[in-house]
Every structure is written in C-alpha cells, then in structure tokens.
Amino acid sequence: MSERLEDIAVAMVADGKGILAADESSGTIKKRFDAIGVESTAENRRDYREMLFRATDAMKNHISGVILYDETIRQKAADGTPLVELIKATGAIPGIKVDQGAKPLAGFPGDTVTEGLDGLRERLAEYYELGARFAKWRAVIDINVGANVPSATTIAANCHALARYAALCQEAKIVPIVEPEVLMDGSHDIDTCYEVTKTTLQKLYSELYAARVVLEGSILKPNMVIAGKKSGKGSSPEEVAEKTIRAFRETVPVAVPGIAFLSGGQSDEEATANLNAINAIGPHPWKLTFSYGRALQAAPQKAWSGKAENVAAGQRAFAHRARMNGLAALGRWQADLEKAA
Predict the structure, then answer these.
(1) Which of these is catalytic: 179, 181, 207, 270?
(2) Does position 339 have pLDDT exceeding 90, yes or no?
(3) With pLDDT > 70 as the criterion, what percentage of the chain qualifies?
(4) Which listed residue (97, 136, 203, 221) is catalytic?
C-alpha cells in the first residue's frame, strides 16, 4: 500500500467500498450495549469489534477503512493479534478519531466548538506508529432557527479548528477526514439544512485553503441535506439527493477525491436509500460513499447481543448492511433487493 496521502485518500473511497465508523467513545458504546443488555467492559468491547473486523466477506469486499477509538487502536484480539493487524489483513486501512468532543462555545448559547488541538501533533505521531493512516475530527453544527443557532462565530471557529487539525494530520503523513456535521435533530425544514450546510462548507474550504491543506490528500465526511427529525416533514431520497448535490457543487472543490457521508441518525435503510439516490443522479466529480456507524452496526449489535454463539449471526448482519451500502455507493441498490436478501 502506498504511503502517499493522495493514494491513501483514493483507496478510502474505492468503488463499492466505504468506511466503518467504529470510533464510539466509551460513553456512546455503553449506550449501545445497554440497549442490547451487554455490560460495557473492555473485554466485551474488544470481542464486539473483533467480531466485525473478522467478518471477512464484509471487510474485504465493502469496507475500505475503519475509524478506531483510542482504546481500540491499542487492543489485541483474544488470540493476541492487534486489532489493527486484523483490519490490515482484510485490505482495509486503520484510522483514528482524534477530536476530544464538542463543548459549549462561550458567549453563544446553543453553539458548540470541538476541542482537541492541544497536544495533537504528538498524539498523531503516536497513532501513526500504532498503524493509523487516516484520522477523523468531527465538528457539530446544530440548527435552532428560533434561537439564531448556528451563529457565524461557531461555524468559523469549527472550520478553523478543522483546518488546523487537517494540516497537522498531513504533516504527520495521515489523511484527514474533515467532518462538519450539520445535525438533523431539530425542527428545521430541508431548505434550512441546505443553507446551513452550504454556508458551513464554503467556510470550511476557505479555511482549508488558508491552512495550505492538500485537498487531494483529504476526505470530506458531511451530513446529507435532509429535514430535521422534529419537523414532521419527511424528505424523499430524490429530494435529499438533489439538494445535497446542489450544495456540494456550489462548495466542494473537485480536487477532493471523495465524500464519505455520515448517517446522522437516519435509519439503516434510509441511509442506504439516500446514498443510492445521490449516486444514481451522477456522474459526480468526486466519489460518493459512506462512513457509517449506527447504520452499519445496529443490526449486527442486536444479532450478537454479547453471546459467543451469536458471532456468526452478527457477522452475517454486518455483511448484509455493508453489501447494501456498497451497492448504494455505486447507485445500484434497490429496495426490493433489500427485502429479498
């Protein structure tokens, strides 16, 4: 595998493949495990991730990279093999989440800024030695129209932090995934999401350019343009696709090799259907694929439920979701295929 940032970025968005976001924090994975009645111990977390990384069909055919959490990149499988080596053995690229979470932005109620730049240069050097070849930093942009959220200040602060992070990654020979997530939790309509997404991406690429980030060696991980969950208005896949691509064509340089969508709280099938619709109206100047967490893992978590005898069932569930999203990344998924499988 080439160590050039540009080559790694291209491999991360290979045809029919996407990125598994297995970077849940200790608090988030505990919530997921609570839902299936499994205690969140280091051993159980290890067993769960090992089950996914040993799912050979899914990993080799549909997963290009795996985003890990600090604990996970250091863990070894039950037989002593580092989890990073399990990932590499399938041909997938290990990555690492490096931000330290969104914190309230002083003076701006309802707005947040992501922290984690302090000491990042040294952490990236260690993660490189541990096997990471890409990293992820998530900025969170909430929408609350009545409260004038987001402010221009929070968009600027988060995009500046993303650019500083991305430059440090490239200095460390690590591909940065830049993730400016406009949340779908609010009551806003799809047009408001479009405007906020467009404004955020315009600012992001202005900051990345100013920071001398090599766009060819980076990946964008954005939200889809979609109505807020509390709006009571559903967004059809065709509408999501049209508005999402319009926002990207107005903001994302063609030098960016690929865009890997977050699922952002969509259901499994909704995330797949929307990704498929986006690719079906191509061709596009960038590869468009997935970087899903819940939309890939909810089904295998439930099938596994912490029981060793359910590992094969969990792997089958993971393989199915990975395959469906791999097809959607090619614009070849169909709802009847989902039901028949």
Answers:
(1) 179
(2) no
(3) 98
(4) 221
Domain range 5-340, CATH architecture: Alpha-Beta Barrel (3.20)
200: phi > 0 → left, psi -120 to 50 → alpha, else beta; which? alpha
Q: Is residue 180 reached through a cis peptide bond, with omega within 30 degrees of 0 on the bond before it?
A: no
Q: Give the pLDDT mean for 175-192.
A: 97
Annotated catalytic, 85? no
DSSP 15-40: TT-EEEEE---HHHHHHHHHHTT---
Q: Is 195 a catalytic residue?
A: no
Residues 142 and 186: beta-carbon distance below 8 Å: yes
Each domain of the chain, given as residue ranges in start order, spans: 5-340
Q: Classify 1 as helix, strand or coil.
A: coil
Rounded to 5 degrees, φ, ψ at 333 are: -85, 145
Residue 176 backbone dihedrals phi, psi, to 5 degrees:
-85, 130
Handedness of CA 33, 39, 42, 45 (dihedral sign): negative
Rounded to 5 degrees, what are φ and ψ at 64?
-95, -25
Encoded tokens for 127: 């993660």
Q: What is the pLDDT of residue 341?
A: 60
CA distance 301 to 278: 27
Q: Give the type of residue at 296.
A: L
Phi, psi for 189 (deg, rounded to 5): -90, 175
**Whole-prediction pTM:** 0.97
Please tell me the distance from the alpha carbon of residue 341 to that of residue 184, in angstroms, as a whole number: 29
- What confidence tens digit (pLDDT) does each residue in 283-313 have? 999 999 999 999 999 999 999 999 999 999 9
Region 138-163: mean pLDDT is 98
Q: Which two tokens stand for residue 202?
A: 């315009």
Report how far apart the first and last C-alpha atoms of the chain are (Å, whole number): 34
